[in-house]
Design brief:
Layout (H helix, E strand, L loop, with lengths): L2 H20 L1 E10 L2 E11 L2 E8 L5 E9 L5 E11 L5 E11 L3 E7 L4 E7 L4 E2 L24 E7 L5 E9 L2 E6 L3 E7 L5 E5 L8 E5 L4 H15 L6 E10 L2 E10 L25 E5 L3 E3 L2 E3 L2 E10 L2 E7 L14 E26 L2 E18 L3
Parallel strand pairs: 9-10
Antiparallel strand pairs: 1-2, 1-15, 2-3, 3-4, 4-5, 5-6, 6-7, 7-8, 10-11, 11-12, 12-13, 13-14, 14-15, 16-17, 17-18, 18-21, 19-20, 19-24, 21-22, 22-23, 23-24
């Protein structure tokens, strides 16, 4: 064959072999929330096919095992997975089967449990979903292989949830860092090696707020056995966040606050998992929601009776309370244009550590005080009742 014809073919074959080699990887991803290990994932990827074993620790051990495939463009093609739970007898018992499949214009998820089968259909294809199980959500080890090659470039995929589809952006920040984000997750930074294999994850400041490290010299079965023995011996389960309500009544005023209470878990909270100059949902999971039976006045601004969400904007010792008209939203989907008022908050240091976020409303002359305590910080804002 003539050299002018052979050379382009050899170049193409070399490029393809390099691409295929780059998309081969396996390891153990250990996810921690503060000082607690919450997820352990054994992952493998070969070309466009992947396999995961995911040990989930919160609220009792569960084992998710899944096989799947990506389309060449990075969207999910299919996943077949099962969930098993650890019983008091030390045996693993099947609890759920999940199937994800896609067509040209839809994503179909089937969840089969003991006495029930649930079907979920979504328009379009997606790169990630939390409407199935961990096998279709814990995909961080694979995103580096579907990131753009040029620094500063972004690719836009879809994040499918029961709250609706959101853009899922994969952006190349530098040669060895990639950022993924959706409005439901927030920004998550992936550190990669020169072959785009995952090394670590920093999700602090996102809705997930974890850190993770990849190990390639650890056996998954050893870790599985260790945590199974630990649970059987102690019976302890990890509770990440709990839901709570605050009720206040004085005169005709009735206030109800519905929020999720995360724990510090050894993490630096303010200036750490809650960064400065970035809005905070004043809780975890869904945005903290408040209902006022009567109007109130905050820093001279009147707030009509009704239902709102609460956000805060930290900036060192200067904090701003943001009362927002959008309700029933996920906590990272803050729209500043929907704020109905903003008021400065008083910031104080506490003598003792507060492990679990605590919101309270207490009476004060002519109105009341909304207070937030966590770590060693107390934030407060005073409201008045209209005369």
């Amino acid at each position: 064959m003539h050299l002018k014809i052979l050379l382009p073919i050899l170049c193409l074959l070399f490029w393809q072999s390099q691409t295929l080699t780059a998309q081969n990887d396996k390891g153990i991803l250990v996810i921690t929330l503060g000082t607690d290990t919450t997820f352990i994932q054994h992952f493998e990827i070969r070309d466009d096919s992947f396999f995961s074993k995911i040990l989930t620790l919160p609220q009792g051990l569960r084992l998710v095992e899944g096989r799947g495939a990506f389309f060449p463009n990075g969207n999910l093609k299919s996943i077949a997975s099962t969930i098993s739970t650890l019983g008091a007898d030390g045996k693993w018992a099947w609890s759920q089967e999940t199937r994800l499949s896609t067509t040209a214009d839809s994503t179909i998820i089937r969840l089969k449990q003991k006495d029930d089968t649930i079907f979920r259909n979504f328009a379009g294809q997606c790169m990630v979903t939390n409407s199935g199980d961990a096998a279709s959500f814990q995909l961080f080890p694979f995103y580096g292989f579907h990131a753009p090659g040029k620094t500063g470039d972004s690719l836009v995929f879809r994040h499918v949830t029961l709250l609706g589809a959101r853009d899922f952006v994969v952006k190349r920040l530098s040669k060895n860092t990639v950022q993924t984000r959706s409005s439901l997750m927030g920004p998550i930074t992936l550190t990669l090696d020169r072959k785009d294999r995952l090394q670590s994850v920093d999700a602090l400041g996102s809705s997930l707020n974890f850190t993770a490290t990849v190990y390639r010299d650890v056996e998954f079965e050893d870790l599985k056995k260790h945590f199974a023995q630990k649970q059987l011996q102690t019976g302890a389960t990890l509770v990440v966040s709990t839901r709570d309500t605050v009720r206040f009544a004085k005169g005709n005023q009735r206030i109800l606050i519905d929020y999720w209470r995360p724990s510090a878990r050894g993490r630096k909270v303010f200036g750490g998992i809650i960064p400065n100059n970035h809005f905070w949902r004043m809780g975890a999971n869904h945005a903290t929601q408040v209902t006022f039976a009567q109007p109130t006045i905050w820093a001279g601004q009147k707030l009509e009776a009704g239902q709102y969400t609460l956000f805060a904007m930290p900036s060192g010792t200067d904090w701003t309370l943001c009362i927002n008209r959008k309700t029933g939203i996920w906590g990272t989907e803050y729209d500043p244009a929907a704020d109905v008022l903003r008021a400065l908050m008083q910031v104080e240091s506490l003598p003792k550590h507060v492990e679990k976020l605590t919101i309270s409303v207490s009476p004060a002359t002519g109105g009341g005080v909304l207070a937030v305590e966590w770590e060693k910080t107390r934030l407060s804002a005073t409201f008045k009742n209209p005369q």
